[in-house]
Every structure is written in C-alpha cells, then in structure tokens.
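Sharing a chain and its predicted structure for anyone who wants a worked example. Both blocks are below, sequence first, tokens second.
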Amino acid sequence: MKIIHIESGLGNQMLSYCEYLAMKKANPGDDCYIETIVYDIPECNNVICQWNGFELERIFHIDAPNIKSYFNDEVWQQVMADIRKSQFWLRNWNYPVHFTNAFRHAGLEVVNMRGDFEAPGASYKTTLSVPSYKKTFLFQYLNFLRKKHLRRKPTTPYSPELFIQSEQNIFTGQQLTFKNKGSGIEKIDKEVRETFVFPPISDERNQTAIDRIESEQSVAIHARRGDMLSFNFDCYHGGYFKRAVGYIKSVVNNPHFYIFCDPGSVEWAKQHSNVFGLDFKRDQIQFVDWNSGDDSWRDMQLMAACKHQVITRSSFGWWGAYLNPYPQKITCSPDVFTDTTHHF
C-alpha cells in the first residue's frame, strides 16, 4: 500500500497527485491511495492557507481512492480523533509523524518517508517568535540574499526519489519536486497531460480572453505576491521581471502581455510598470483579474493557453508554463533548478 499526502492550493495538489501517479507506475501491483485529511480540519487553514479546499475532483474529475475508504466509519473517526488530539498544525506542521501514528493505532502499519518535522535540525513550517512586521521584512531580506547567491552560483537541484519501488506500506507526498529539473516527470508526462485537462470555458469573458490569447504571441506574467511575497522578494527587487521580459521582447515579434496576480496586488502592479520592464502606454498589456474564489483555477487555464510564460516561485504559475503545448514556447523562472526553458 502507498499513501500520498495532499494539502494546500491547486498547484501543490497537482504536484502531489503526480507523486501518486509515479507511485502507481513504480508499484503497479500495489494499492495506492491519496490522503486529504488537512482539508477536514478547519484549524489547519488558520495556520497554512488551504485556499479553496481539495479541488482535483471538482476541476479535473479525479476520483482516486482515498485512504479514508480503507477504514470503516468507526475506525476512521478514531483516526481523525487521534490526529486532532495531536494538534500537529501547532507542532511545526508535523503531519507525517502524527498521521502515521494514527494509522498504526488503527491497525495499519505504515512507513513514514516524510520525516519528523519536530526533530532537532528539521525544518518545514517554522513560526518565528518575532513581531509580524519584523518577520516579514526578515523573510524578504534573507530570501533576497539567498536567491541572489543562487543566481551567481547554480547548485544541483535536490530531488528526492519520486518513483519508489517497495514492498512496504509507505506514507509520503507533498514533496513538490516534480517542478524541478531532473525530477523524472517525463516518465509520467502522458498520464499527467491526460489527467489535467481543463473543462471547457462557458462564460463570455474568459472565452473572449482565450480566443485572443490563442491568436497572438501572448505572454503570461504570473506576478505572485500575497502569501508568497517573501519567497519572491528578489523577483520584484532584483530585476528578474525586467530580464525575462526584456529577453522575450528581443526574440518574440509583437508580444502581448497578460498579467496574472492575486486580487490584492492588481493596483500595486498597475502602479509599478517599471518592475516588470513594461511600458504601460506602449506595450500591449491586459490584466486578468476577474477569476476568483472557486473559479480561480481558470487563471491557470488562461496562462497555459499563452504562447510564453514568465513565472515566479509558485506551483500554480509553473503548471501554467508546463501545460503550455506551444512547441516554441519560452518559459522563464527565477531559479536555475526550476523546470523551465530559461532562467533569469
């Protein structure tokens, strides 16, 4: 038996589902399950945003077996009681230890391959005991220095084994490394593309946008700020967008830029054209800011329809680049280990 943990927003859910596909491919004779417990515990959303909940079934009609179905109702209630009692969300998000302990208590022996996030030296979701405004600035500055160093001295990407062959019962998932170069995603590319097929567009505004996107040299710019601003600090202060957009302008004839960003950052982006290397009076630019809530995923569909992409550190944006079928696509990211055609 193989159990794949899934959490967070749509982009991360899709990456974790790729781990499920990899496990099935590596262990064709084993039962493989997904696990989505985090979405059933409201307190988790107060610590790490789970966005619109589990979306793979609603959007892509994915009906993978859930580990919940392995247990009867009474035993499952005990599993959930054990997990809730652990309050893992307050213990450095240490779900691997507490989930596998709960499974063992219910009679399912399973090997935890995600580690112990509370062990000395472990790091996963750490909360600093400093005022929030200082924490934000500190995160931004440290990430800026780290990413600046990575640009100067590329490192070998860390990609844990994703196609594990084992006779043991395994608990894993949420490694999110299929977006890295060398991850081996090409081994399941066919299954991935057959799985992540967007539903047809039915509303006029998105249909008008995608018709235009598909008819021109469209360039999606994913300006992910919001909760990811600290991780993308150098993108806005280190010239990443200017370098990427400048390159695209030099090789793409008559590009039309489509800017996607979280709703709270639209006005900021409109007032900082210099950050993106764009001239809002001369360049062809359109903001895509109408898809929200349960329809937010439509932005990924529109991004993937663009001929080229400029993304930040965001799995949501990366999927827009990966699912782009254009043979001559240019996909830009700020890190050398991200699986895109160019890095700046």
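Comments welcome. The longest helix spans residues 132-152.
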